[in-house]
Amino acid sequence: MLAQVGLHVGGLVAVAAGLLFWQLPGEHLRLMWASAAESTQVGTSVAFSGVLHLGIAALVWGLVYGAGALVKRGLARDVSNPRRFKPTQGAVFVETLVVFPVFLLLTFGLLQLSIVNLTAALMQVAGYQGARAAWVWQPEADAGRSGVDQAEVNERARIAVALVMAPVVAGDIQMVGREISPQAEAMARAMYVRFALDVSAGGLASLLFPVGGNDPTTELSAARAFDSDGFDRRAVRKFLFSYMMTEMGEGLASSDGIGVIHDGNSTGVRFKFHHYLAMPLVGGLFGEPKLFVGMGGRRGYYRTWEHEYVFPRQPHGVNRHTP
């Protein structure tokens, strides 16, 4: 009895850890923990996502354990009666043909659900980090210091959001036709320098266009959606794709629009993030088919998230003199 309990607990922990570290690097886990410690709103959302993550891991473990038990039982039956004619073998084969697609659907569905769940948690962290960027830079735009205008504040908030959301972006989306701001390009080139990569002409463009060209009207396969490059190039590419998928606007947000929120009481952000659903067979369960013209015309299943996070406005008046 205790051995069975230990087996299931160990399997659950292993699956939960595997799903978590498969999607989020250590730095993002530390950022999520720090943001949750500083914000009750983020902490509550992350805790809820953590409980849901354990539930998803339990379902995955149950699926794996059940499949393993069935295979083990079938092998034991064949070994015990190696020469005995089994009239039910044809029925077993037919049952396998019926059950296997369901097994694949459940497997891909649970994996995609795990990604969607962690995306929801990252949206809270991204909102917190984007609002922090707006809270820091908005007074500079209000004072007109250092050449900072409202578009610059929005851009810095957008980059902060994109950096947080990068892990859940497919590594080989190859979107084209979307402009990259000078600030985002500077961030990408800084990442290149950090990883000691070549930043010569064409370095960034080579990340956005695959070898042999790109057909933006076709849907990506699951194999191409997974990361297949080194960590350094993959990190820069995922940031650029995350930036393309983030909408922040260029000015202050209206009552129901996106952008930087800045009024008499609060400063923060309201943004959208278009999450590409890479798992096959189950995209329609979690999103809807779209053809994003503004994102290079990439066809596929997307789930659009919208989130808002605000801080109390800075209590001190604007210093209009450059420090």
UniProtKB/TrEMBL annotation:
Keywords for the protein's UniProt record, in alphabetical order: Membrane, Transmembrane, Transmembrane helix
Domain (TadE-like): residue spans on this chain: 90-132
InterPro entries noted in UniProt: TadE-like_dom (IPR012495)
Segments crossing the lipid bilayer: 7-25, 45-71, 92-115
Organism: Lujinxingia litoralis
Keyword field contains Membrane: yes
This protein's name: TadE-like domain-containing protein
Keyword DNA repair included in the entry's annotation: no
Domain of life: Bacteria
Coiled coil (UniProt feature): none
